[in-house]
Amino acid sequence: MEMENQQSEAKFMCSRCGTVHPFSCIRVVPAWNETALDFLTSYRCMQCWVETLGETKLKTAVLTDEVRQKFCDFLGRHEFDELSQVLRQAKLDSSSNAIQKFLDHVQSGDIVLEP
Q1: 95 strand-pairing partners
Q2: Cα separation of 48 and 88, whole Å?
Q3: pLDDT score at 51
Q4: Other beta carbons less than 10 A from residue 83's beta carbon
Q5: Does 113 fall in a domain?
Q6: Which domain holds residue 31?
Q7: Less CB within 10 Å around the terminal CB: N or C of the chain?
Q8: 84 burial via Cβ count (<10 Å: 0-12, 13-18, 19+)
Q9: How far is CA 69 from CA 22, 37, 64, 79, 108, in A?
Q10: pLDDT value of position 7
Q11: Of 46, 48, 109, 38, which is closest to residue 77 (Cα–Cα)?
Q12: Dihedral sign from CA coordinates of 60, 63, 65, 67
């Protein structure tokens, strides 16, 4: 039965390494895209997601107004509107700390982002 579930489960491609996996083996994480200059919703396999989340933590560790705005926009796209508004109104260092805590919760699995 488990094999049938894996065969019928939607497949996603890791947007870092390009390998294809069932959705249950993919994590959705925010990733900074240098071309778009924005945080994009990224699909990462189990081998790639932790590194990507670490890169996002580095990008948000010392915020600029622009990077904070982009991260808040990302949160809004994932229906974290209340947190987005709080972060927009907080001082940059407070916003950075709150974003780091949010990302820690993503890493622990307490927060699961949906595609």
Answers
A1: none
A2: 29
A3: 97
A4: 16
A5: no
A6: 2-108
A7: N
A8: buried
A9: 32, 11, 9, 15, 25
A10: 60
A11: 38
A12: negative
Calculate the average pLDDT of the chain. Answer: 93
> With contact defined as beta carbons under 8 Å apart, do 39 and 31 qualify?
yes
Domain total of the chain: 1
Q: What distance in Å separates the CA atoms of residue 102 and residue 94, rounded to the nearest whole number?
A: 12
Which tokens belong to 20?
């294809």
Question: Which amino acid makes up residue 76?
Answer: G
d(CA 54, CA 3): 33
Query: In the numeric block, which tokens belong to residue 115?
Result: 């595609």
Q: List the structure tokens of 17.
A: 């390494």
Taken in order 97, 103, 105, 108, is the CA torsion positive or negative?
A: negative
3-state class (DSSP) for residue 32: strand
| Contact predicate 73/85, CB 8 Å | no
Residue type at position 96:
S
Residue for token pair 């590194």: 51
Q: Which residues contact 93 (CB under 8 A, 6 or more apart)?
A: 63
d(CA 10, CA 114): 14
